[in-house]
Design goal:
Organism: Winogradskyella epiphytica
Number of helices: 3
InterPro entries: FixH (IPR008620)
CATH topology of the largest domain: Immunoglobulin-like
Number of strands: 7
Mean pLDDT: 86
Oligomer: single chain
Largest sheet: 4 strands, antiparallel
Helix content: 25-40%
Low-confidence stretches: none
Strand content: 25-35%
Number of domains: 2
Structural class: alpha+beta
Keywords: Membrane, Transmembrane, Transmembrane helix
Pfam families: FixH (PF05751)
Protein name: FixH protein
CATH class of the largest domain: Mainly Beta
CATH architecture of the largest domain: Sandwich
């Protein structure tokens, strides 16, 4: 059977369109490629942005800032030694960019200037850590991206 050039062009177009449609449908239906907004309340947090910048600026004026250390037990967040731990309050938010179901928030409850985020709550990979804390009347913000 001999195929003329017009039939060959139509077959090539049909194959190309089928190829593209296969990828479009597989990308839109596969859960692996599910892309959401970074956070649920994206626009509400955008309005909070200037306050976050001010809190980060306050943190730069501290004698020493928060430090992070990864250990076998988890992530140890160490607050400045010169501050009274009874006056420190706030929240720690851990955000996992690849899976929003792994995000969690915890209250700051210190023992000896340290806060431990247990290993059982953390999977290997990238985490964004945000510590929003208050000492007396001043608010501070610490952000860091780590690979656990």
């Amino acid at each position: 059977m001999k195929i003329n050039w017009g039939t060959a062009i139509v077959i090539a177009f049909v194959c190309f369109i089928s190829f593209i449609m296969y990828f479009v449908i597989s990308m839109s239906t596969d859960r692996k490629y599910d892309h959401d907004l970074v956070v649920e309340d994206y626009y509400g947090q955008e309005l909070q942005f200037q306050a976050d910048l001010d809190h980060e600026e306050n943190a730069k004026h501290l004698k020493s800032n928060i430090t992070l250390k990864t250990t076998k037990e988890g992530i140890v967040i160490t607050f400045p030694e010169n501050l009274n731990i009874k006056n420190i309050e706030g929240k720690v938010f851990l955000y996992r960019p690849s899976n929003k179901q792994l995000d969690f928030e915890t209250e700051i409850s210190l023992s000896n200037h340290n806060l431990l985020i247990p290993d059982k709550r953390l999977l290997d990979g990238r985490w964004n850590i945000k510590v929003d804390w208050k000492y007396n009347t001043n608010s501070y913000l610490f952000k860091k991206e780590i690979t656990y």
